[in-house]
Amino acid sequence: GDPLDRRGRVVRRPAPAGNWGRWGAEDERGALNLIEPEGVRTAAHEVRTGRTYSLALPIARGNQPAFDFRGSPQRLTLVSQTDAMYDGFEGGGDVGSNEDVLIIPSHNLTHMDALCHVQAKGRFYNGFPADTFRSHTGAGRCGIDKLGAFATRAVLLDLPRHFDTPYLEGGYRITAADLAGCAERQGVEVRSGDALLVRTGYLDEYRAIEASGREPSFAQPGLSLDAVDYVRAREISVVGADNSAIECIPFDDRFLSVHIALLVESGVPLLEHLWLTDLAEGMAQAGTYSCLLCVSPLPVTGATGSPINPVAIV
Ligand code: UVW
Known about the structure:
Layout: H1 37-44, E1 52-54, E2 74-79, E3 99-103, E4 111-113, E5 133-134, E6 138-139, E7 150-158, H2 159-163, E8 173-174, H3 176-186, E9 195-199, H4 202-212, E10 222-223, H5 225-233, E11 238-241, H6 257-266, E12 270-272, H7 277-286, E13 290-295, E14 305-307, E15 311-313
Parallel strand pairs: 7-9, 8-10, 9-11, 11-12
Antiparallel strand pairs: 1-15, 2-3, 4-12, 4-14, 5-6, 7-13, 13-15
Helix pairs in contact: 3-5
The chain binds acetylphosphate.
The site of acetylphosphate (UVW) has 7 residues, from strand 12.
């Protein structure tokens, strides 16, 4: 447990770096606190063409870019229009209804990581002890329900376009200089409270490999620890990417090092498996790399993450 001070109050151990304590000892929203109402009003002015892009992959059974242990999403039919139960209702003979049950692993396909998703040295974001997470009740602290829905200005950095390649190579470590160079080339300014969307081309490569019948590689391009400095220095509220874990695989330095730096130390939630290719094309045509982004995780009490269908409006 936590050490106590002389008055019996809990003393949280200091974070190695980052945002612990910045929004108060009880805060569970982390860098989403950087999204101010004024910033949301400004973000609404980012809408130029009025075109709307869903950043979600289809939720379907079958081969998906996900770690095997997470399994495949299941859409199970609960009631079908042909079921006999309708015969008992007046007028039920020629009326029927259909209903599903959805079983979706919360870290499969397009999803948002809650701040309780990863712990390091027994601590979640803001120093909450890892034993506040229990198998039966889930997260006592920093569950996805504590993050809530948000809207903010988002900047897309299209790295394959910047490097003139269809996709970055598996294992490529994206650096702060890569992000800064790409933003400069695209002529886009990154501001405090923005969502940062990083396109690596990984999902495009995954689709091409799947279509060819080859086995996708475990290695993925993604953020390195060096790129975390870029995120922190610009006060970014949330990071999203078109890969499985935001960070490069094999991991930089140690297992989940970028998750630890962003989720645990900085309280920056992560959006993963975003489909960014259509948005990138739309933005290139519109001549802008900033937009309004709306994200709403399911408010599942104590959950470690949630499927999302983020909406970008250019
Ligand atoms: C891990 O990378 C462990 O999880 P996620 O893909 O949800 O971030």
